[in-house]
Write a structure and sequence with these properties.
The protein is of the alpha/beta class. The chain contains eight helices and seven strands; from the N terminus they run αααββαβαβαβαβαβ. Bound molecules: zinc ion.
Amino acid sequence: MREYPKPIQNLVNLFTYLPGVGPKTALRYVFYLLKQPKGTIESMARALTELQLAVTSCTVCKTYTTQDMCEICRDSKRDRTVICAVAHPRDIGTIESAGFRGRYHVLGGTLSPIEGITPDTLEINSLLKRLTDEPAVSEVVLAFNPDIEGEATIMYISKLLKERHLKASRLARGLPAGSDLEFADEVTLGDALNRRWEV
Ligand SMILES: [Zn+2]
């Protein structure tokens, strides 16, 4: 790609950090921004700064929040006996739409030794600590993508839960293997959740 003035080049380089954005798309974004009113760019810059300043992790479930504790953890109407462990914060929205009304724990990914994602790099210890702190919890639903990493994570955590005499369950089959929870429709996911079985 030919060299553009430095401010353009800088932003192009930054955009290519985003998933699925290559240099050409990044350049298209930058040219688009150059045509926008000054206020729009200022608002975007402010939103980006605020993202880092205001968004933090929930002290309980580790999802994104702007407070100490997220809305779901603060909701007293939630079922306190079941926790759904998910890989990413975005999975909470997916499981919510399927009708789950317990609480969550966000691991931050699934086990993948090749990519250096080991149990220590995930929020597994905080999940175990939480289970000790919250004796009302009797079941953990392990809701990960039906792929190799998801399976490995289910195996690993279910063993730890069994040692603690807690019920570990997984979504019923029906989700296409290797697929992403994000793309499962609500009905299929709701069904997989209702028919979840013990690991
Ligand atoms: Zn929370």
